[in-house]
Amino acid sequence: MKIRSDVLRTYQSIHTWTGITTGLLLFIAFFAGALTMFKPQIEQWATPPHTQLSPIAIQDYDQLIAKAVNQYDKAADGFKVNFAADLSPLTWYEKGGGRGFRLDDSLRHATLDDDGNITTQLSTSNELGELIDQLHRTAAIPGKLGHEDIGVLILGLAALLYFIALVSGVIVLLPTLVKSLFALRQHKGANRFWLDSHNLVGVVSLPFHLIIAWTVVVFAFHDPFYGGLQQVYGEQTMFEPRAKSDIEYSVAQLPSINEHIERINQLASDYQIKSMEYTKLSSTAPSLAVEVVANDRMMRGGYSDYIYLNPYTYKVEFSTVHQATDGLYGDIVNSFFALHFGNYGGGFTRWIYFSLGLLGAFLFYSGNLLWLEKRRQKQPLQKRSVRFMSSLTIGICLGSMLGVSSAMLATKWLYLFNEQINQHYLSCYYLIFFAALIYSFARGAAVAAIHLLKLLALSCLLIPISSLLTLWVPGLTSWAPADFNGGLIELMALLFAGLFYLAAIKAQRRTALGEPNSIWAIEPKVSSKLMVNEI
């Protein structure tokens, strides 16, 4: 296929600048997004086993609930029933709760002992998985605009430019697509190999990237979309408002768990009930949020579907479980969510999305490296703009990964000193991230890349070592040996430790044996006069 050279240059320029302006933000989003594919497993791994109480038989839940609401005022307001064997059968918030994300919620766990007496304990909810998800959604950009996170809106704009970069990149590749797509030409130099790798990853995973780009735009700007549709609807309401009730309900009237389970099974017969959360039980607006799972379905939530109903009348207020009456609109909405979350197809699909997320992060990182190599000059000292961008790339990309790995490493040790660990997670991430960024500018990209990669390898290696040490450290001995999910997380940490160490060795070798006129060569010391006269 032939395309005029001036057209190719135009699209190459579009691809370059849309990519370079969004690549670093999208690197963080994709790297963290890959981890969120296993958010529940990460939170389970990060939570001390002793905070979860023993499960009970299904027929004992009503007895447990009755004892809890009679003895604890907060439980009478609302509680959550968990059916998973590795979670406490009943929990409620003593502090916090409700919608929104907080770092200091206090959760009380409850179960029944062998004599049928209620046993409870208070703990802080571990939000490591949620914080990684927040990093994925906002790139750790703080602040809100109205009720929306500023980081979400910025990533929405980045996704729009990212879509343009995808389309323009494909157009640039079209003339040589068939001939050079799978040609990884190592013998033609590192720059050609990086370009071939970048092109291969981009084309092979193109459908995934198109899905992610458009779904992020929809997630970020759904309010303006609905605002535009409201102009079409005029005075007619787009969605039926929830009918207000004058009836004051009491928790004493609450039907049994079995009655609620029977009703949910009627509404979602192919689903498995994961949890049931009751809120505002003694009010005119009580609610029951039921989390249901079907791994062979496209689910609207990240890991499940939800059914909201009145716990006293069983009237369904809202449901994400697809029904035949939902029509085309329901199919489209469910598809947007499920295709972004990768929650269909069970664990196999999650591993595919995990791999594609990491490859996406590589795509943006390699794109920045290609931009830098294209602009380097054949002289020992590179232009200030090239040095700035190289330090920024290394600092942000490696700093964000080091921040997350350090937070994971600190998890079990933080429980020795402070129960309120979620704020420490946040502090740990920002401290490590900005320290890496400052170090990258202070030492230059070449030196910083080697040192930060070695630190990444060390932090990942220490994660499973820390788990072994908890068997002997006083105060942590109650941390049971890892289960399958926990062991898998630590095995992946070992794998990444090896990959980061190999990358560090390769970067170190390149400083000695690679092209001397490069940002990856150790920068020579220059006089202040040369610095002043530099272009």
Automatic annotation (TrEMBL):
Family annotation (Pfam families): PepSY_TM
**Keywords (A to Z) from UniProt:** Membrane, Transmembrane, Transmembrane helix
Is Transmembrane helix among the key words of this record?
Answer: yes
- Keyword Metal-binding: yes or no? no
Bilayer-crossing regions: 20-38, 152-178, 199-221, 351-371, 392-415, 421-441, 453-472, 484-504
For this protein, the record's InterPro entries field holds: PepSY-ass_TM
User: Would you tell me the protein name for this molecule?
Assistant: PepSY domain-containing protein
Q: What's the source species for this entry?
A: Shewanella pneumatophori
